[in-house]
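Troubleshooting: if your tokenizer reports a length mismatch, compare your output against this known-good record of 316 residues.
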Amino acid sequence: MFKKIAMVITLVLTLCLGMFIWNMNQEEKNQIAAQEKVESAKRPLLVKKEKIERELDNLNRDYKANISPKATTQVIFTGLEADVYNICYPIMKKFGYTGILAVSLTQLPGMEGRMSLEQFQEMIQSGWKICIKWDAETPVRNWWPKLQKQVKQLGLETGDVVYFTTGTYKSSLDSQLTTMGFSVVVHHGEESESLIQTKDEEGLWHLGSVGFMGEKPKLRLTQAIQQNGNITYLVGFELEDEMYKERSFLSMLSYFDAYEANMDLIVSDMQGARQHYREREDVHMQAKVEEYNQEKAALEVELAAVEEELAKVEPK
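Known-good structure output:
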């Protein structure tokens, strides 16, 4: 009797276990089916989401590369020492940058202690530019014609950029500078001129400058990036705030390189920088910015709608 009861109990337990396992399997199948249904519903939405995100990335990348305002910078070498050619020139070339060489009656290639004419011409041919160092001591009627003549004898043009040493720029000189053919003035913030230039100007374009070893050069660069403005840097072998020091020189160029790689900075000459400011103020450029904003807004609305649909099909 006991044996029969045990057999009945075993049979009942076996049946219960079988039912439990069947229910478990059925539940698992239902879950798999439900998950497959969710995944099937999600798949086209995920594809659409990825497509919209890719379009947004491409739109933003194109905007940043070709339309968005950027900061600009240049490097003026305030002397023509042989070390500018022997040391600075190869380093600048390694980074893919060209600079600006300041010339004056006392600083011309071939003079004692200066780079040779051949070295100077090599740098000019590789894309370097010239700027004129203002002579505050000599009357313009004597200094300017003589300097023009000497530069011409070297087979070069004087260009349209004039650089003032610290404390020598005066706004009263502007009309005279314009008559002399200059279109860009490089100052040190005299007469409350801003060191960071954020827009183009009618006539003379006034650019502030600091030495690579001067007042917080990296902070000035950060400020220029934040304001999408221009800051000019000075490097030399005479004045303390401009003094060439390899570590600082490489550090600043590395900062340029990082900002340029992120498409926040343009390293060029003054003419290239000015063209950037003129273009970003142009009516056609403003229309492109408006078009970008409209396309971006439309894509973001579309993306939000897809994400809302995805949220609906996700299992609760």
